Amino acid sequence: MAARPELLAPPEIFYDQSEARKYTSSSRIIDIQAKLSERALELLALPDDGVPRLLLDIGCGSGLSGETLSESGHQWIGLDISEAMLDVAVEREVDGDLLHADMGQGLGFRPGVIDGAISISAVQWLCNADKSSHEPRLRLKAFFGSLYRSLARGARAVLQLYPQNIAQRELIFNYAMRAGFGGGVVVDYPHSTKSRKEYLVLNCGPPSLSAAVPNAKGEDGMSCSDDEENHTVTVSDRNRPRKKRKLDKTNGGKDWVIQKKEQMRRKGAAVPADTKYTARKRKSRF
Amino acid sequence: MRLLTHNMLSSNIKGVTDGFPLKIEAGKVVEKEVDMNTDFLKNIFTKIEWKPFVEAAKTLGYSELPEDVDPSLLDSQDFLTKFHHALLEIHLEEGALVCPETGRKFPVSKGIPNMLLHEDEV
Ligand SMILES: C[S@@+](CC[C@H](N)C(=O)[O-])C[C@H]1O[C@@H](n2cnc3c(N)ncnc32)[C@H](O)[C@@H]1O
């Protein structure tokens, strides 16, 4: 797999003219963007009354995702940090309005005016500090806080994203919860490395009947096992008390110590190697 | 940028308490025809801050909107046509948006307002 773009350069640099070009010339990219946007719009679960809404496309880029919104009749405002991507959107003559803006600086909208928001493969960019002045936590806070305020009560935001690891997913999710959102993560095709897709489905305002986290899509061509989790993975549902995962209830055994040491290593701490002496029972006089 | 967006936007510079409405400095204004959708207009009407909307339309050279409104107007075809036109068909192509509190200018070019903040404004 190619290196993660977030690790190569800041978004306004990575999404330069040649990268932006791909959003008009590569049928593979166009196809993926369209599929992700259609799914995000579906997960928004707007009322089925045929009334067009005012939606937000966060990290709208070249406007491919926005076109999906237009096709369903909605009005939208898209914002993006990359000028090259916005130029492609202008060329494409998208129907939505475009803003050159950085979501990490907070969204400047009046409170409660937006009926729903989607974002395709953009929010994980907030976890990178691209300038010395960037503090990812502050940027996540500014983003989710302002998103929450600009949405109408009962509205949803569906953010498709590629977290780099579990810690990053948790970080993003936690900041969404802190801003006041309820909701969870929907994972489509969890068993396929290629088609696996994650959507943060966020509800603005008190949970209602319709605010339950929707079902994920299964894996095509695989027979369903009895195990529900096989195709529906919903983690961290805020409306349920979160259970902390315990490693092992019998603290102190050799396995437990080795696991703990491994954990500390992952955090970058200097930990002595595991040997036959690790967690060995000491003589009582020791 | 259309007036729909202008009516929702506010300046979020650090320390600004009421960044709405952004003043418009109109350079180039263009019009593009869009199909009218009455359901959308009725739905969005409740969210529009009317006075700033009328003001903004005037700045862009359109002064057919009534100064005062109430929801009963939504039954008038004449009103809906004007509302639709001002909301969705007039575009600010070149110019600037100005923060009402600080006077900071956000340039608009190719129809796109540049809302990026400087580091000391975040
Ligand atoms: C995978 S692209 C999505 C493209 C878009 N859905 C389309 O249809 O073209 C991710 C986009 O997120 C934008 N992005 C990344 N960080 C951003 C930020 N802090 N604020 C706004 N946009 C950002 C990038 O510039 C890029 O255009």
UniProtKB/TrEMBL annotation, chain A:
Q: What is its main location?
A: cytoplasm
Q: Carries keyword Cell inner membrane?
A: no
Q: Which GO terms describe its biological process?
A: callus formation; lateral root development; maintenance of root meristem identity; rRNA (guanine-N7)-methylation
Query: Cellular location of this protein?
Result: Cytoplasm; Nucleus
Task: Please list where the region (Disordered) is annotated.
Answer: 213-286
Any Pfam family: WBS_methylT
This entry carries the following GO cellular component terms, namely: cytoplasm; nucleolus
Keywords, alphabetical:
Cytoplasm, Methyltransferase, Nucleus, S-adenosyl-L-methionine, Transferase
Every Methyltransferase type domain range = 56-132
This protein's superkingdom?
Eukaryota
According to the UniProt entry, which residue ranges have a biased composition of type Basic and acidic residues? 248-262
Domain 18S rRNA (guanine(1575)-N(7))-methyltransferase Bud23 C-terminal, chain residue ranges per copy: 202-283
Annotated GO molecular function terms are: rRNA (guanine) methyltransferase activity
Entry's family note? Belongs to the class I-like SAM-binding methyltransferase superfamily. BUD23/WBSCR22 family.
Protein's name in the database: 18S rRNA (Guanine-N(7))-methyltransferase
Q: What organism, scientifically named, is this protein from? A: Chenopodium quinoa (Quinoa)
From TrEMBL, chain B:
Organism, scientific name: Chenopodium quinoa
| Protein name per the record | Uncharacterized protein
Q: Name one Pfam family in it.
A: Trm112p
Oligomeric state and interaction partners are given as: Interacts with TRM9.
Q: From which domain of life does this come?
A: Eukaryota
- Secretion signal span: none
UniProt-listed SUPFAM superfamilies? Trm112p-like
Gene3D superfamilies for the chain: 2.20.25.10
Q: Which GO terms describe its biological process?
A: rRNA (guanine-N7)-methylation; tRNA methylation
- Which family is this protein grouped under? Belongs to the TRM112 family.
